[in-house]
Design brief:
24% strand, two-stranded antiparallel sheet, 7-stranded mixed sheet, 6 helices, alpha/beta, 228 residues, binds magnesium ion, binds cytidine-5'-triphosphate
């Protein structure tokens, strides 16, 4: 198998504040996990999709794809969930794309773009320039302003040569990790940046669900106009 996608869905969704993990929340009638799986299945490169879930839960019924592998249970931190996914992938997987279930609106074209960049550069992620001015704040007081043009907001998928990600995760013991790229950076590998997409937002706070619903309506209108 050439390319496997790990969909990490084992978080608790505390900031969203609903009574179940985010991946199981519905957005316009379909679970976030089902939407993420659809997008990954629509990529021309992704051969298999491995869901990483909270203990005791199974894949939501609406997440269906011939590319789906049996799910595995995640861990306390995101990087533990990634490690659980990696451990379950067969050793012949050459490239691994790690995607947040909390990003249901990623487009298959963006997934293809970042996979192709990784195949060329070994490691790649989707990222976007930041529109806001960035302040350093301590104790409610501004202590500095960052040079905004030096910063990008990281999205997923993030794609790596499998052996490289395995090594980065194995050596990540004392490192925090809200994304995979920082673990790969930490072992001295250059990670290539590919233009992300503002619609590929991470559902984190309740408002994000409203924004995502709006983007979906917009896509629907686009589709209807194209077919009219
Ligand atoms: N994730 C995971 N395992 C963890 C933590 C996070 O698989 N131990 C996954 C989440 O399910 C999500 C993605 O990583 O798809 C991004 O994490 P985040 O947005 O922080 O999701 P949660 O951890 O679920 O949310 P919160 O931090 O608000 O609890
Ligand atoms: Mg989290």
């Amino acid at each position: 198998m050439r390319v496997a996608a790990i969909v990490v869905a084992a978080g608790r969704g505390e900031r969203l504040g609903q009574n179940r993990p985010k991946a199981y929340i519905e957005l316009a009638g379909r679970s976030l996990l089902a939407r993420a799986v659809d997008a990954l299945a629509g990529s021309r490169h992704v051969d298999a999709i491995l869901p990483v879930l909270p203990a005791g839960l199974s894949v939501p019924e609406d997440a269906v794809s011939v590319k789906l592998l049996p799910a595995v249970v995640g861990g306390d931190e995101r990087k533990d969930s990634v490690a659980a996914g990696l451990a379950a992938l067969s050793s012949d997987v050459e490239w691994v794309a790690v995607h947040d279930a909390a990003r249901p609106l990623v487009r298959p074209e963006a997934i293809d773009r970042v996979i192709e960049a990784a195949m060329k550069h070994e490691a790649a992620l989707l990222a976007l320039p930041i529109p806001d001015t960035l302040k350093r704040v301590e104790g409610g007081r501004v202590t500095g302003t960052a040079a905004r043009e030096e910063y990008y907001a990281a999205q997923t998928p993030q794609v790596f040569r499998a052996s490289l990600l395995r090594k980065a995760v194995a050596e990540s013991r004392d490192r925090a990790g809200t994304d995979c790229a920082q673990l790969v950076e930490a072992i001295g590998v250059d990670v290539h940046v590919v233009d992300g997409d503002r619609e590929n937002l991470k559902i984190t706070y309740p408002e994000d669900l409203r924004l995502a619903a709006f983007f979906l309506t917009d896509r629907e209108t686009e589709r209807n106009e194209e077919s009219a």
